[in-house]
Amino acid sequence: MNNKTLLDNLRCIPDFPQKGVNFRDVTTLFKCPKCLGIMVDELYELYKDKGITKIVGIESRGFLLASALAVRLNAGVVLCRKPGKLPADTIKESYEKEYGTDTIEIHRDAISEDDVVLLHDDLLATGGTMKAALDLVNKFNPKKTYVNFIIEISDEGLHGRKIFEGMTEVTTLISL
To answer: Which is the catalytic residue, given 24, 61, 93, 152?
Structure first.
């Protein structure tokens, strides 16, 4: 999609969090009302006819558009969080990261087999966190799943999209 207004407002911070990394800072898109509206409108157009009943926001930037889009789609929001952040009974999924393992959780009663689920996060690079979130959601056996990101980084040799091939439809608003 690569909307010019979104691209013009996306901040890039060189050498953050380490030298050689160009960090794409989506906070500039969230603080701009026009950009926020564009993102919600584009997401709505992508998913308005998919029958979405739940949107899983991935901690923490994924929570923002998941909530805004859920209002437009008349869907519920499910939080996918780091361990110990959700108060009720959860199910977990652990996954490998570059320097060790991490775990994410969702409430055990958050999703049913009747749900059509959209998982949303801000950035697709290697895809590890979202793959773990998708594996976690699939434990609930929903009718269908979709995955969305604001930004996909593919210009730095990262091929995160490949991890989802044959599993689910993946869309992004910006591809760099």
So the answer is: 61
